[in-house]
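User: Here's a structure from my thesis project, written as structure tokens. My advisor, Dr. K., wants to see whether a designed sequence matches the one we expressed. Can you design one independently, without my sequence as a hint?
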């Protein structure tokens, strides 16, 4: 019996029975960053033109384990020793054991060598044929994922297996287009300029005013809506700026004057971003009312700017828009209270079980426990607005491991609730299905 299997065998009968019940449960995966095959091929070719191969640091990098690019198996094994105990490494070790039968209690150079060859072998055919069979097989057969929402570059999801892979429209760069880029390469990093060049055949020098920029933004949003592929909008700006979006000035000319001049300071950039955030929300609330996935929690930690509570003005101003708050807003630990009082939000714990299983379990338990004061709304009870799983990984092995940790956290949370008399034994499976499947399916209408 392998290492993690043995650990499970030593758990309580409640744990083991629910683990078995959840083995084949259908899952909606709210958030992934799977690389395209082209991106993998490019990486492997950068290493060695004659014998292209993906390296250990590149594999790990896609599931949040960062080690030095240069080195050999011995050095990497030593460096990985520093990662012992992290959720990220545990997720990876579980995946290697379950998917490939490669067991590791300690990481040795030999382990890494075997791991690398197993991964390369698993993806070899897809590399040759530019297909995604391995990814699709793991999602479908090993994870029982019915749909996974991909947050990749706009339209890149079209390469991934359909219809299992759906897409989030990642458009936070709309908030940062204060200056028209000087060249085409710089413009590719901003969805508005990308859209103007690629889909509208507009020259960058013809974008002169804030009005031009807003017009293209609307065209882009219309394009995303018409494509019917995007189940939600994804905004990830909390790494660059606070999540507080105050009301833009009544006099728009103040923003118009900022456009296409080098900003004096980051406050000006944020002011422009505030304006565009309200602009996009106003347009989508009228013409394309999809949920917003918002990165909250771990990001800019210096000043608390990444705390989801900063978004409250938007929750109030746009009551018809649904905001799906990512990563359990960790470490601010206030989602239970927020869902108790604010109706148009959901708690999405994607990535959190791998960041810290302890934090994930505590957050999830709270979300099961708390009731609410917003009962005029449909599905107002917080556990009806909680999504547990998204791997947030660039490689499917990382997602697989994260799912196993999410299930482990879920079972421990339910067992705790059962032992304290919060739920009956018969409630456990229903609540598990609620957060793994029913809620995300309803919220994203997939
Ligand atoms: Zn992510």
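Assistant: Designed independently from the structure alone:
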């Amino acid at each position: 019996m392998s290492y993690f299997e043995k650990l499970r065998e030593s758990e309580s009968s409640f744990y083991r029975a629910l683990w078995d019940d959840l083995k084949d449960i259908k899952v909606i995966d709210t958030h992934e960053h799977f690389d395209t095959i082209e991106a993998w091929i490019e990486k492997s070719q950068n290493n060695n033109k004659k014998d292209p191969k993906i390296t250990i640091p590149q594999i790990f990098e896609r599931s949040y384990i960062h080690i030095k690019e240069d080195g050999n198996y011995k050095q990497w094994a030593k460096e990985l020793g520093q990662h012992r105990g992290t959720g990220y490494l545990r997720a990876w070790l579980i995946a290697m054991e379950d998917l490939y039968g490669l067991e590791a209690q300690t990481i040795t150079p030999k382990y890494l060598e075997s791991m690398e060859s197993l991964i390369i072998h698993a993806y070899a055919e897809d590399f040759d044929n530019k297909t995604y069979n391995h990814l699709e097989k793991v999602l479908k057969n090993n994870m029982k994922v019915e749909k996974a929402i991909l947050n990749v570059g706009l339209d890149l999801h079209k390469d991934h297996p359909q219809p299992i892979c759906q897409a989030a429209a990642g458009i936070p760069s709309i908030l940062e287009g204060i200056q028209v880029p000087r060249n085409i390469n710089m413009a590719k990093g901003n969805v508005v300029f990308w859209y103007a060049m690629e889909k509208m055949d507009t020259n960058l020098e013809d974008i002169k005013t804030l009005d031009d920029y807003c017009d293209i933004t609307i065209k882009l949003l219309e394009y995303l809506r018409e494509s019917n592929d995007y189940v939600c909008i994804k905004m990830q700006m909390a790494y660059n700026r606070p999540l507080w979006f105050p009301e833009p000035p009544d006099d728009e000319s103040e923003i118009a004057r900022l456009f296409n001049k080098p900003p004096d300071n980051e406050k000006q950039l944020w002011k422009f971003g505030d304006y565009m955030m309200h602009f996009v929300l106003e347009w989508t609330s009228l013409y394309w009312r999809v949920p917003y996935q918002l990165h909250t929690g771990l990001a800019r930690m210096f000043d608390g700017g990444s705390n989801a509570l900063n978004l409250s003005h938007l929750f109030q101003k746009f009551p018809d828009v649904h905001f799906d708050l990512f990563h359990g807003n960790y470490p601010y630990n206030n989602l239970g209270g927020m869902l108790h009082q604010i109706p148009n939000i959901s708690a999405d714990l994607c990535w959190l079980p791998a960041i810290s299983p302890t934090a994930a379990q505590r957050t999830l338990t709270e979300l099961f426990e708390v009731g609410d004061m917003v009962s005029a709304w449909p599905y107002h009870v917080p556990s009806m607005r909680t999504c547990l799983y998204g791997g947030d990984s660039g490689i499917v092995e990382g997602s697989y491991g994260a799912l196993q940790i999410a299930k482990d956290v879920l079972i421990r949370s339910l067992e705790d609730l059962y032992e304290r008399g919060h739920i009956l034994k018969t409630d456990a499976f229903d609540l598990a299905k609620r957060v793994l499947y029913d809620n995300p399916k309803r919220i994203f209408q997939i």
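When you compare it with your expressed construct, this may help: The two ends are 38 Å apart (CA to CA).
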